[in-house]
């Protein structure tokens, strides 16, 4: 029977407590949301929504083609120009998703004969980029510059080190300055995914590379998503102009993919401009994360100290993590639930998003519900 093997895999997932299901949400959900990545609370901001609507009215519902044919509008280039200026880099290139941006950066900068050094805790999109790159990939220990140094010392020729800036599972930050120093010892490039840093870390939310003093460096390339702090959709690669030009000519997820829809471009541009006017949102997101962590640990829960806006709470098992998240939802609180294989260390967690627009009362309510429903 065609695809008969699927049934066996489905049963194995069921036995392991790892079945995933889609849960459509209404536009006016009554749940207190600590599950989304809307770090700055901009996804529903009137200016973000109006930016999307205005772009759709002007440019239509879709980009109509790949970026190199008809999919680049004046709005795309405006967003790229403003993102580059905000993050302190020479140039930027917008993609249809953060996933596509990571595939582009890693595959185009890890050609045949090169070495790609990847952190063991990297996001799936970086891992898939390494798998698709023609270079040789070596996975090293999590957030370990010495392991990176050892890996680079085994290779002669082009090399690139790939890492998240803030890791999505526990919310811990990579040692960017130390990684950059190791890369410079060996003439290697550094590609970092700032999906969870942009809008949260750095001066006014300019990102983790900016905070580490790496903005504008000729040997550093930054990827990010427009779907988290900027409340829209899409991805971006930021860095030296010659690297961006190379991606335009070599990155398959840029050349062969339809451009990002104008509505998403307009929403991201509006959110970026709002963040420029209200830079305190970044500090507030970090403050909320610190408060969540302090209250959760005071309640006797095992929470990981956040370096940005992700707060992770350990669960005893995958099954108990699922039940814990479901009980939170029943009590009116939406939280993320991370289980294997999404977590590289095999430890299941609740994952909380510290949003800048959460009030003190909402923080207190969230901690109370999590504590009352703990396994």
Describe the structure.
This protein is α/β, with parallel strands linked by helices and 375 residues long. 43% of the residues lie in helices and 15% in strands. The chain contains 14 helices and twelve strands. It is globular, with a radius of gyration of 21 Å. The N and C termini lie far apart (41 Å).
Features:
375 residues; seven-stranded mixed sheet; five-stranded mixed sheet; 14 helices; 15% strand
The residue fraction in helices comes out at 40-55%
The tally of strands reads 12
Identify low-pLDDT runs. none
Secondary structure class reads alpha/beta
Strand content: 15-25%
Taking all Cα atoms into account, the compactness measure Rg is 21 Å
Q: Compute the separation of the termini in Å.
A: 41 Å
Placed side by side, the strands forming the largest sheet appear as 2-8-7-6-5-3-4
If helices are DSSP runs of H or I spanning 4 or more residues, what is the number of helices? 14
Largest sheet: 7 strands, mixed
Order of helices and strands: HEHHEHEHEHEHEHEEHHHHEEHEEH
Shape: globular
The chain-level mean pLDDT equals 96
């Amino acid at each position: 029977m065609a695809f008969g093997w699927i049934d066996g895999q489905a049963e194995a997932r069921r036995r392991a407590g790892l079945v995933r299901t889609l849960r459509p949400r209404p536009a006016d959900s009554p749940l207190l949301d600590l599950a989304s990545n809307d770090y700055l609370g901009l996804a529903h901001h009137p200016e973000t929504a109006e930016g999307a609507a205005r772009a759709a009215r002007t440019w239509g519902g879709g980009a109509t083609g790949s970026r190199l044919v008809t999919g680049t509008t004046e709005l795309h280039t405006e967003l790229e120009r403003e993102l580059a200026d905000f993050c302190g880099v020479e140039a930027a290139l917008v993609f249809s998703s953060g996933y596509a941006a990571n595939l582009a950066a890693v595959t185009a900068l890890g050609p045949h004969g090169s070495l790609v050094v990847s952190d063991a805790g990297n996001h799936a999109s970086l891992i898939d980029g390494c798998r698709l790159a023609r270079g040789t990939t070596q996975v090293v220990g999590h957030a370990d510059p010495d392991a990176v140094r050892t890996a680079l010392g085994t290779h002669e020729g082009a090399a690139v080190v790939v890492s998240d800036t803030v890791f999505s599972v526990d919310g811990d930050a990579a040692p960017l300055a130390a990684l950059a120093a190791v890369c410079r010892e060996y003439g290697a490039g550094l590609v970092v995914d700032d999906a969870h840093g942009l809008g949260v870390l750095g001066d006014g939310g300019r990102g983790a590379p900016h905070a580490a003093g790496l903005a504008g460096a000729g040997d550093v390339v930054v990827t990010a998503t427009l779907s988290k702090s900027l409340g829209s959709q899409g991805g971006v690669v930021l860095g030296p102009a010659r690297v961006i030009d190379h991606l335009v000519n070599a990155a398959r997820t840029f050349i062969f993919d339809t451009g990002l829809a104008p509505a998403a471009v307009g929403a991201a541009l509006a959110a970026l401009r709002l963040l420029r006017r209200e830079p305190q949102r970044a500090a507030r997101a970090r403050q909320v994360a610190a408060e969540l962590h302090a209250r959760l640990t005071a309640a006797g829960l095992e929470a990981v100290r956040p370096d940005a806006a992700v707060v992770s709470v350990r669960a005893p098992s995958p099954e108990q993590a699922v039940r814990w998240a479901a009980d939170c939802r029943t009590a009116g609180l939406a939280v993320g639930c991370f289980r294997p294989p999404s977590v590289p260390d095999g430890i299941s967690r609740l994952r909380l998003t510290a949003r800048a627009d959460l009030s003190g009362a909402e923080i207190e309510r969230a901690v109370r519900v999590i504590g009352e429903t703990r396994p």
